[in-house]
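Structure record:
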Amino acid sequence: MTNDRPNPDALLQEVRAGSSGKLKIYFGYAAGVGKTFAMLNDAHEELERGIDVVAGYIEPHNRKETMRLLDGLPKIQTKLVTYKNMCLEEFDVDAVLLRQPGVVLVDELAHTNAPGSRNKKRYQDVRELLDTGIDVYTTVNVQHIESLNDIVEDITQIAVKETIPDQFFDQADFIKLIDVEPDELLKRFSEGKIYEAERAALAMHKFFTKENLKLLREIAMRKVTDRISFLNEQTMPFSDKRASMKLLVCINESEASQKLIRWTARAAEAFHASFTALYVDDGDTESLPLADKKTLQENLALAEKLGADTVTINGHNLSETIAEYAKLSGVTNIVLGKSNRKSFLLGKFGADLEDELIDSLQAIEIHIIPSSRKEKTKKQCVDIEKYRHMA
């Protein structure tokens, strides 16, 4: 007599292969607001309900109340990776895939994995887990949302290098805003509940000032509010303006183009519109310095990361080329950049591009975005290890 009973594990794999896991993001405006604490607390409630919950990776914190919540939760051992004579602890996505829990907790969504890992970014690990049907609870701060990156840098004067695509955040099944008054957060710092005394003093001086925290909190709240408004509008008909709006951002090999791309991405999200990033190749692209070529590719990659279509077309007359493309593609709004000294998008093409486009495209709105207040000659960048919890 043969045993024709199906293998339970195989059945589970088949069921999960046909459905995606749910993503829940604990979202805050700064380190110390309580994201990890809230995530662990919810995990205990799920465990009591009989859900198979495991802690995949929890960032080590100097916060006793938070770390005590790890007690009683099943854990996945971290993976040790050697890099430049350092032994780094990384999230072991393969161990979770083998274990197949119902829910896995993965702290610090924007983390960059150690070189040699299967994925460059932790959110890509999370995506793999979701694709197999595993639910994921994770944490992220507002400064890690790609389209908001330049706004946060303008506020804090610190360039946060670890980001996640807006699309990944926006497609989460649940966003839980974890909030605390800035005064209370600063009190936690001063009491040593977030960082050790020396590090806390540096953080409060450089990043966690009351003014910065108030602005970051407002941005985080607005991001969540915009998401709620968008979800509510899914059941309502779009207005003609929203339904037909199509944005075009004109970019080049300048780093300043990144601000234009992020501005356009935010506008596209606000109006639920599509947008395209256009680069006009005048025939000299191949002769550009290697650094400029690299920046151009980074600009195009950033646009794609934020949901844009990217287009490169040839043309020696910049305004005519842009205008022709805009007419043929049904563009309603064009975004250009300009500094106080000269238009950084124009280069050798002159300083009247916007005037020429306004004259030839009278039915299309032209948006001129000024460069940042400070040129990025001496930008302060984040040391990933030193500012791990700030960033």
Observations:
- The longest helix spans residues 210-233.
- Confidence is low (pLDDT under 50) at residues 238-242, 340-344, 346-351, 374-391.
- The CA atoms of residues 244 and 273 lie 8 Å apart.
